[in-house]
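User: Quick one: structure for sequence A, then sequence B.

Assistant: Sequence A:
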Amino acid sequence: MTPAKTTPKRLAARGLQRLKALADPVKAAGAQRYFKETVAFLGIATPDMRDLDKELFQEIKPEWGIGEATEFCELMLANPYHEVRALGILIFERYRKDFPRSVFGTIEKWLLADCLDSWALVDVLCPNSVGALLLKYPDLVEEITGWAKSPNRWVRRASIVSFIKLARKSEYLDAAYDIVRSHFGDADDLIQKASGWLLREAGKADMDRLEKLLLRHGPAIPRTTLRYAIERFPEEKRKALLLSTRKP
């Protein structure tokens, strides 16, 4: 008799059971200090999360496609716990090479519905999954610029961190810088930190271009963004940039 196929519902139930068995209340309490918003944690170490992701994926790898992975992710995103949602994302992004263009709209829907309501979840999903979509479908770069204007902070952060890995590719540098510039007036510290992170990554491809941008826009750049952006400059250069970009 052929074994029954592992359905998304079955895997979600088993994944939740395994995660609860790994839960550590002490680690859960400690994780909260990294977040200003309240986040529900089970308290599971990252290596344990990765091991469970790998184990479950090996089980469904011969059977599943993007449809099952998307359904599984949506089931997990409906759970309030951070680690449950993260496991859903980790399995989902394993299929990123097979993403159809429509997945961009699916992810946007999740963001708008606050299914990814912490900087950590946005940062797990977007650099790999949305980044893969932008690489596979370059016309989506224009669409994602609209995310920068969203009243939803998670959509705005997603518009930035989706370029984190792409910023090292010269053909995406212009788009990465355009996205960051569009956020210079954003007062949200999570947006400012993400902008600085992206600028720092862009600097790995072209440090001179980053320095010129910082000097050109200086006072308009939030100081939080600036401090993140200059982390890879030598100490004397960092001091000089902080001084030369101060508001008059």
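Sequence B:
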Amino acid sequence: MNLSETACNIIVVTLALVILLAAVAYYFINRLLQKVKEAHEKLLAQATIDDLTQLYNRRSFFRRFHQEFERAKRYQRPLSCLILDIDNFKEVNDTFGHLAGDQVLQEIAHILKTQCRQSDLAGRYGGEEMIVLLPETEDAGALAIAERIREMIADHETIDGKGQPIRVTVSIGVTYVAGTELANLDSPDRIVQYADDALLAAKKTGRNRTILQRPS
């Protein structure tokens, strides 16, 4: 083998090694980027999702609510909101324990998510209360959704870790604001207050019921 052939072979081997090292580096860089992306998504989820129910946490829910409120107000589109509260939830915790209570919350949240449309927004309002924003939804549609949720929860049976069956009911307050009426509101907090007042009325009139309250 002459000198030129040897040099040529060295160049070929060197190029092959460079290509191999580049491929290995590309693979590990991609793996690193994927892990960074997964870590970012996990942190984002932790910042927006309630750990127990997997619904939006209160802060992220109301951030999204404000955005939807401004959009509906700008285009004069209707908004409905419902707040549900588990009836006598303290008795569940006292009778079956807090782990069973957590399980009830998780299963109710799951029912809530299955009944929500892709455009709806469901969040944990606090404790045993959950809240749902229903964009582009008028009073009849909001009532139908709320009643379906209430009936499904009443029919549902949770089996705790000891095999004990647990049944609960919920009271639901619903409000609806027409698109033309949104101009009279300076904040979505007023919408939540209407739904909260309706929930209180449902509690006072016997629980396990849905009540609609419109802006006065």
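The CA atoms of residues 79 and 177 lie 5 Å apart. The chain has a mean pLDDT of 89.

User: Thanks, that's what I needed.
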